[in-house]
Amino acid sequence: MLFIRNNIWLAFYVFLLAGFAAFIFILMKTHESIREDVRLEQENLTRITSNSVTASLRQYETLLDILGQELLHEDNYLDREKSIQEIDKLLTASLTAYNFFLIDFDGNIVVTNSLSQDKRESSLNLLQNPKTKESFNLTLDSDAAVIGRTYFSYWENALIIPIRKTIRDKNGQPLFIVSLTINIEKGLPFFSNTIEHSADYSVFIYRERDRYFQVAPKRLINDPAVYEHQFSEERIQESIDYVEKAYDTSFETIKDKQIITTHVTGKFNDDSQSMMSNFYIKEFQLWVGVERDTHVIRQKFFQAATNLVLLFFFAYAVIFWLFRVISSNEKKKEELLTFRATHDFLTNLPNRYFLDNYFSKLEEQDSYHLLFVDMDNFKSANDNFGHDYGDQVLIEITRRLKLSTQDRECLVARYSGDEFVVVAFNLSSFEAERLAEAILEDISKPYLMSGNRLILSASIGISHCPTDASSFEEVKRLSDFALYEAKHNKNCYTVFHEELKKRYLDDLSLENKLREAIKNEEIYVVFQPQVSSEDLLTGLESLVRWNNKDFGPIPPNRFIPIAENSGLMPELGRYIIRKSLDEASKFTTSNCSISINVSIKQFFSDGFFEYFLEQVDQSQIDKNRLKIEITESLFIQDLDYVLGMINQFKAEGISVSLDDFGTGYSSLSLLKNLPIDELKIDKSFVDDIVEDKDARLLLQGIIDIAHKMGITIVAEGVETLEQKQILDTLGCEVFQGYYFYKPLPIKDIISALK
Ligand code: C2E
Ligand code: CA
Ligand code: CA
C-alpha cells in the first residue's frame, strides 16, 4: 500500500516533469508561431504598402504621359502660355499633392503652373545640382519615368520627390522633359495612412540605385538631413548576405521575383533589434522596407506565456488535487488495513501486534500496570451454545472490560482467544487492585444472550512497570506468572511478587521432571482403605505417589495441577489407571471396592472411557467393584457431555463417586440432578463437625437428601474416634482416614489383612 502511495506521488512528479517539458515545448512553439504571425502580418503590410506605392507611382507616371501628350499636341510645349494652361488643367485635381514642370535639356525649369511661376527658384538647375544631376542624366537616357532623390524644396517648403520623363517624338528623338514633384507627406496617401495607423511599424522607401532614403521612416520623415545620408554599402551587403543565406537564393532572384524577405537586424539609428521586411519595386528600382521592433514579439509572447503559465498552474492545481484525493483514499485504505492488521476483527480491540508495537514506542520510565485477564471457563460457552454465541459473549466481555476501565487511563486489548490485556497507566497498586476487582465483578455477572444464561469468571495476573520489570515483554511475562497463580483458584486476581516467579519456575522444572518420571516409572500408586461403621474393610482408594531422586516425594496436590496445565494429564491418567488396576488385581482376598481418582482433563481426554474399559478387562477385576472419583468442577463444564460419560460408566456397572463435597460451590440442587452413587464428604467438613453445630446440621441435611436418592456417604480425613462417632450418628456409611489407615502400598495392605 505504501508502495502504491509513494508511487502515486512518483507518478505525479513524473507527470509534473513531463508537463513541464511539454510546457517548455509549447512555449517554444508559441514563440515560433507568434514570430511567424508577426512576420506574416508584417509581410502583408509590406506587400500592401508596396502595391500602393507602385500604384501611386504608376499613376504619376500616367499623369506625366498625359501631360507629355497634351504638350506634344500642336507643339504646345513650344508655347509657354499654352504649356502653363495645360499644367494648370491637370493640377486642378489635387494641387497640394504635386506639381508639374517642363524642363529643358540643360536642366533648366522652363514652365510650371501659373500659381507657382513667381516662386520658382531661379537658381535651380538640375544638371548643376549634384543631388539631381545623376537622376536627370538618367532621365535623358531612359524611356521610362525616373524618380529623383528626395530633396527639400524651399520653394514649396516641403520634402519633395521628383519624377521625370523624357518626352520623345515619333522617331524617339527627345523633345522635352516633364517632371512631377510629389509632396512626400501628401503625395503618397496610402503610404502616409499606413504610417499613421501602424504605430509600431517603421515604413520607408529607399533607393536601390544610390542607397538614399526615398521616404524615411516616420520618426525621421521630415528631417531633410536624413535624405542626405547614404546607407553604407557594407551594411547593405551584410543584409544581402544574410537574406541570401536565409532564403537560399541569390539576391538577384529575390529582386527579380520580387520575393518579400524578412530578417532580424540591428535597427537603423538605434541599438535595439528589429524585424525587417523588404520588397523590391523593380519598375521604379525602389525598396519598400517595413521594420518593427522585436520587442513586439516579446510582448506578445509574454502575454501568451502568462496565459500559458496560468493555465499550466490551474491544470496542475486540479491534477494535484486529484492526486491528493487518490493518495488520501489510498492512505485511508492503508489505515484501514493497518487497523485490521493491528485490531481484532471480532471485538475491534487492539491485538497483540498492536500491543507489541505500541509498547516498543513507550518510554522506559512510563508507569503502568499490566492486567492479564484470562477467562476461566470460556470453553463451556462455545461448547454449550456454539461459536456464534461464544463470539457474542466475547463482544459482551469486551464491552464490560471497556466499561470497567472507562474512568481510568487504560488500553484494552484482545491478546488471544479468551485472553485480554488491560494496560492501566498511572495507577497506584491499590487502585490497580480495585480495578481488577471491578473487572472480575463485571465479568462474573450473568450473560443473558439469545435466551441463554451463562455464568463466567476470569482470573487476572497483575504486574507493574517499572517496579517489576522495565520492558513490556518482561512485564507481560511477569503478569503471566501472576495469572498462572490466580488460575489455581480462579475468579480472582494475583499481584506479581518474586515468590511467584520462583514457584512458576519450580513448576516448570517439575513439569520437565514429570515427563521423565512417567517414562522412568518413578510414579506409583498406594491405596487407602475405607471401612464400614463396624471397622470392616469395604474399599480401597488409589492415590498416586511420585518420588523424585532430586526433589524427594512430591505430593499429588502439587504435581496433578502441573500435569493438568501442561497437557500431561491424559498420559499420566492412563498410567495411573493401568497401575491402579494392575496393583488392585493382586488384592484377590476380599470383595472390597476399588476407587480411582479421575481429573477433569483426564475425563475429557480422547478415548478415556475406552481405555478405562480395556484396562479393566485386562485386570480381570469385576466392574461392579470399580468406582471413579470425580469432582464438582466437572459439572460447570459441558454438562451434557459429562452426564453422558457418567451414564456410560454406570451402564458398564462402574460406580461414580463425587469427591471433595463441601469445598467448591457444592449445592444441594446439584446433588438432586446428578446420577452419582457415592458422595465423599471433604476433610474440611469433617474437621469442623466436632466443634461446629451448624456444620453438623448442614451435613445432616446433605446426608438425608443423599440417602433419599440412594447415594452412599463416605467421610474423608477421619482422624479421631469422636469424628467417626458423630459421622456415624449422622448417617455416614463409609469412613476413610488416618484414624483407620494411611495410604499404603498394596503389599502392605495384603499382609496387614492376613
Ligand atoms: P483426595 O482424592 O481427596 O484424596 C484424599 C487425600 O486425603 C489423600 O491425599 C489422602 O492421603 C489424604 N488423607 C486421607 N485421610 C487423611 C487424614 O485422616 N488426614 C489427612 N490430613 N489427610 C488424609 P493425597 O494422596 O495427598 O492426595 C491429595 C489429592 O490428590 C487427592 O485428594 C486427589 O484430589 C489428588 N490425587 C491423589 N491421587 C490421585 C490420582 O491417582 N489421580 C488423580 N486424578 N488425583 C489424585
Ligand atoms: Ca479422592
Ligand atoms: Ca477427597
Secondary structure blueprint with pairings:
Elements: H1 2-72, H2 80-91, E1 98-103, E2 109-111, H3 130-141, E3 146-147, E4 151-153, E5 158-168, E6 174-183, H4 189-197, E7 201-207, E8 213-215, H5 233-247, H6 251-257, E9 261-266, E10 273-281, E11 286-293, H7 295-342, H8 352-360, E12 368-375, H9 378-385, H10 387-405, E13 410-416, E14 419-425, H11 429-443, E15 447-449, E16 452-454, E17 458-465, H12 472-489, E18 493-495, H13 498-520, E19 523-532, E20 537-548, E21 552-554, H14 556-566, H15 569-584, E22 593-597, H16 600-603, H17 608-619, E23 626-631, H18 639-651, E24 655-661, H19 668-673, E25 678-681, H20 683-688, H21 693-708, E26 712-715, H22 721-730, E27 734-735, H23 746-753
Parallel strand pairs: 17-18, 20-22, 22-23, 23-24, 24-25, 25-26, 26-27
Antiparallel strand pairs: 1-2, 1-6, 3-5, 4-5, 5-6, 7-8, 7-11, 9-10, 10-11, 12-14, 12-17, 13-14, 15-16, 19-20, 19-27, 20-21
Helix pairs in contact: 1-2, 1-4, 1-7, 9-10, 10-11, 13-14, 15-17
Residues 528, 542-544, 555-557, 560, 576, 597-599, 629, 659-660, 683, 716-719, 736-738, 743 line the site of ligand C2E.
